[in-house]
Amino acid sequence: MMKLAIYGVSRSGKDYLIKNVIAYLKETTLLTVIHIEGSKTLNTLAQDMFQQSFKSLEESRKKVLREKFTEIVSEKDSEYDLVLVDGHYSFIDGYSHKVVFTEQDENVYDHFFYLDTPSEMIVDFSKKSTRDKRNLNITVEQVRNWKNYEKCELDKICKNHRKELVILDEDTKSSIKFIYFWFEFYSSKLCNQTLALNFYNKHKSLLEKSNKVILV
């Protein structure tokens, strides 16, 4: 019914936010919701198809898996009320940024959110992380430039598709409530499928009696 992607730089807390959104929706609503974990799913696909980690693959194979990932997202959309995905637009590559966002990403999601966690917090999380997620050298300025670059580029993409890039802050409770409000408002007021169903239910008896219906 709705595919919602939450973007943000590494260690911004996307997984944590989505897990809490799902817990809230399961506790307070009857909605069916699923989190498709970006990096984890890509790594699983890489092992299944190429017996390698996603990170170690050549770019052509990564492209194949990213396309496969968006196919999975579309398939789950028919099974769940809400599909949540944590996404990466880019990674720091020396003094520039390596974009991993694809044309498939651009077209598959209904809504784009960006988790704009304070740069100082992200640096702290990066230094406290373990294994390959740990980064002792990243600076606040690097993170700030990284976030500004991603927000600017994603905003351009959203505008080209007549969509809005919604910015979330690090306040998990308010972000959860806002995401739920967004879903409810869109579903009840702006979703064509919902509007069509409501129209049918309202005029069901008349529609069933009619031999011809003209929609204007």
Written overview of the protein:
56% of the residues lie in helices and 15% in strands. The protein is α/β, with parallel strands linked by helices. The chain has one domain (2-209): Rossmann fold (3-Layer(aba) Sandwich). The strands form two sheets. It has a five-stranded parallel β-sheet, sandwiched between helices. A two-stranded antiparallel ribbon has the order 4-5. A hairpin with a 2-residue loop joins strand 4 and strand 5 (96-99). The relative contact order is 0.17. The mean pLDDT is 90.
Short description:
The protein is an alpha/beta fold. It has helices spanning 14-28, 38-50, 59-77, 103-108, 119-128, 140-160, 172-190, 192-202, 204-209, and strands at residues 2-7, 33-36, 82-87, 90-93, 96-99, 111-115, 165-168. A five-stranded parallel sheet has the order 2-3-1-6-7, sandwiched between helices. The protein has a two-stranded antiparallel sheet with strand order 4-5.
Assembly of the depicted chains? single chain
Total number of strands: 7
Secondary structural class = alpha/beta
Order of strands across the widest beta sheet?
Answer: 2-3-1-6-7
Number of domains: 1
**First-last Cα distance:** 25 Å
CATH architecture: 3-Layer(aba) Sandwich
**Cα-atom radius of gyration:** 20 Å
Number of helices: 9
Describe the main β-sheet briefly: 5 strands, parallel
Task: Enter the CATH topology name.
Answer: Rossmann fold
Overall mean pLDDT stands at 90
Order of helices and strands: EHEHHEEEHEHHEHHH
Given as residue ranges, the uncertain stretches (5+ residues, pLDDT < 50) are none
Strand content: 15-25%
Which term fits the overall shape? globular
| CATH superfamily membership | P-loop containing nucleotide triphosphate hydrolases
